[in-house]
Design goal:
Pnp Oxidase, Chain A, globular, alpha+beta
């Protein structure tokens, strides 16, 4: 009987994560669960329609920008927004340095611009029409524009949420560019609800 209790104790410890074959198996099983959850999460989020924006700033006279879909209003009093930037992003480092950023809410005809700014590296502004607005790069012909002062940086997983106070807000009559089910589109009001 004592041998059975000892054997049961050893197996229990291994299954609870102690070194050994069962501990490695448990770790592999946990990784598979996490990978499965990440894939399911990607699928859920691909079915959430989001506005497409290019966040910009200027450092030493050179414009920086990247496409983001994780952008939202945060407060009306005072007007505030939040954007999520990859923790390894060059733009994040630039915004942390300048403490200022612009949010160019793209128009429905600007999907090519969204793709250009979604790439890594320099040269994203080559051939792109933009103006200096509040000492920030404002892309031409967008749906909307916000100039912001960064007031906080909050780490969340592999991204950093940048919270900004809005100093300028402008909009146009152009339809916004949206991203839904891994494709670009635009918003349409449901019939009878306009």
């Amino acid at each position: 009987m004592e041998l059975l209790v000892t054997l049961s104790s050893v197996l229990s410890k291994q299954l609870l994560g102690f070194p050994g074959r069962f501990g490695r198996w448990r770790e592999m099983a946990q990784n598979q669960v996490i990978e499965g959850l990440q894939q399911s999460f990607r699928e859920v989020m691909s079915n959430v329609c989001t506005p497409v924006s290019v966040v910009t700033t200027i450092v030493d006279g050179r414009p920086h920008g990247t496409t983001v879909s994780a952008f939202a209003s945060l407060s009306m009093s005072p007007p505030m927004v939040l954007v999520a930037l990859d923790e390894r992003s060059d733009l994040l480092a630039a915004v942390q340095e300048t403490r200022r950023f612009g949010v160019n809410i793209l128009a429905s005809e600007q999907s090519e611009l969204a793709s250009t700014f979604a790439t890594k590296g320099q040269g994203k502004f080559d051939g792109v029409a933009w103006t200096d607005n509040e000492a920030l790069p404002r892309l031409d012909d967008g749906h909307g524009w916000l100039a912001c002062e960064a007031v906080d940086f909050v780490t969340g997983g592999d991204h950093v949420v940048v919270i900004g106070t809005v100093t300028v807000a402008e909009t146009t009559e152009l339809s916004p560019l949206t991203y839904y089910q891994r494709g670009f589109g635009t918003h349409a009001v449901l019939e009878g609800l306009a």
